[in-house]
Amino acid sequence: MMKKARALFLILLLGILLQPPHALADEKQLLIGLIPEMNIFKQKQRFVPLGEYLSKKTGIQVRFTVLSRYGNILESFQKEKLDAAFFGSFTGAVAIHKLGVVPLARPVNLDNSSTYQGYIFVRKDSGIIDAAGLRGKTFAFVEKATTAGYIFPLAYLRDHGISAPDGYFRSFYFAGSHDAAIDAVLRKKADAGAAKNTIYDMMIANNPSFEKDLRIIARSPAVPSNGLCVRKDLDDVLKRKLREALLAMHADPEGKKVLSQFSALKFTETTEKDYEPVHLLAKKAGIDLIKYSGGINE
């Protein structure tokens, strides 16, 4: 009898060990990655109330982790460390094709838009007004895996007959976040920079004097704001709970309070089709999203 019980125990143990990693994971916890688009402390302040709200409404413990680089969000998915992520428009478009992630929802901004633009900006006292004025200057990109902070500037340069930043700029570098790129131009560490308009406008709102110092010389077409995408093998019930909780927030008094802290009016449903403008912009920049690998493992 003891031998049979021991054999049964070993069979059960082997079955558990052979399960895939996600089958072992506690589905009462959801780890969501965040791209480092702004100061990490400000970003956590913005997302913590949302995490607490989603935890309460879904019965799932929602945790956020701010990654050190944009590209790491894709790498983390590949290594199956994340369950979901608020992808930027570019990383989202790449992740849909490369990793099969499923887009659920994205925030509607206070101006009632669910999109953003890329800005290329300079100091007003620089004398730069167009692409020609950027020749021989120092440029601050954000990261390779960003629409506003890299893909759009490349497309802008190509539109003006400049095939690559090498040789056209005196130098260029990657600031790591949108607010850091803006700050670099303000502090004259760079002559020009690129960033998303939502972060730019937020910094102007917090520091109105910045508007006197900066000039926007180019704006990109609209692309979808950072959307929540989940891994393709996430439990369907969890997907539904997350989607429903996000889409119903604006109709709930507690949800409205959290949305106010998040600087959003509501969340809107998001699909793969919403990322088509990103494909078009990447094509103008000379980048094939399906083959793209820059910024993912670098």
Q: What does this protein look like?
A:
The protein has helices spanning 2-17, 21-24, 40-58, 72-78, 89-99, 147-159, 178-186, 197-206, 210-213, 236-247, 253-262, 276-284, and strands at residues 29-34, 61-66, 84-87, 102-109, 115-116, 118-123, 138-141, 171-174, 192-196, 214-219, 223-224, 227-230, 264-269. It is of the alpha/beta class and 298 residues long. It has two domains: 6-114 and 224-284, Periplasmic binding protein-like II (D-Maltodextrin-Binding Protein, domain 2, 3-Layer(aba) Sandwich); 118-220, Periplasmic binding protein-like II (D-Maltodextrin-Binding Protein, domain 2, 3-Layer(aba) Sandwich). Helix 6 (147-159) links the parallel strand 7 (138-141) and strand 8 (171-174). Helix 3 packs antiparallel against helix 11 and helix 6 crosses helix 12. It is globular and about 55 Å long. The relative contact order is 0.19.
